[in-house]
Write a structure and sequence with these properties.
The structure holds two protein chains of two kinds.
Chain A lengths: L2 E5 L4 E7 L4 E7 L4 H15 L9 E7 L3 H18 L3 E5 H6 L8 E7 L5 E3 L2 E2 L2 E2 L4 E3 L1 H8 L5 E4 L3 H5 L8 E3 L8 H15 L15 H7 L3
Parallel strand pairs in A: 1-4, 4-5, 6-11, 11-12
Antiparallel strand pairs in A: 1-2, 2-3, 6-7, 6-8, 7-10, 8-9
Helix pairs in contact in A: 1-2
Chain B lengths: L8 H7 L2 H4 L23 E6 L5 E6 L2
Antiparallel strand pairs in B: 1-2
The chains are: A alpha/beta, B alpha+beta.
Amino acid sequence: MNILAFDTSTGIFSISLKTDQNRFDFSCDMGFKHSETLVTEIELFLKRGDLSVSDLDLIVCPRGPGSFTGLRIGMATAKGLSLGSGIPMVTVPTMDMIAYGFDYFEGIVVPIIDARKKRFYTAVFSKGDKISDNLDLTPEEISTILKEHERILLTGPDVLEFSKYMDINGKIYIDKLNNKSWSGNLIDLGIKQYKEFGASSDSEGPLYLRRSEAEIGITRKP
Amino acid sequence: MDLYRIESIEEFELLGTDDFMYSKNITIIEWSEKITEYLPDNTITITISILPDKTRQINIEGM
């Protein structure tokens, strides 16, 4: 199976291509320049894998939450490739993407993305299982959740920003190593999701976790 | 950015322009009072007042 995955949901960009023989990964942290970077990197990766778009079997990108613009760039590009070439695509929740691979941790795994307004997107995982919804909370609200657990691993692109709000004691571990690149996780999670549930619907949009355009339109004064 | 026509903070969020404000670049915002809760901690506020003699007084806070 030839699978292309890319993540533009945060300021860190990453892309992975897995073919039957080879595997390519790339990530960079240069701020939100995904609209300039993404298509160029896709072309480069296909060249590396000696593939054309139509040789792909699956395309994977995050669903959200995350940067609204970042999610739109990723999903719009994935949909364009998918619909244009007839290749199935799946989207993976961002929190699941970041928490993937930590099922060995004896405690809870808590991915953290800066949601601005001094709030953070997060979720709670235990031994690889998601045990909460996708959440949009203040540091105090997250702290209330963490207090119920004995061992906690914080991971994700904004853990260091978040840790300023926490009293980091012996029971909270900060993942300083793996908070850099998640497109490889999208490959594994994408395959799993596709086999279990099939391709994402064409009409699916990003998961913002904030009030939607429809809700804002309803409450706008005529 | 000129946020004069923005009617709610949610409308601003959906534009996705908050990424500009949190970059390493300079963002100049007119009508920033519409999105106070979104402004970063290191925001510099410039207030321009028109005095009775028609001159301008400029206050700069946050430098």
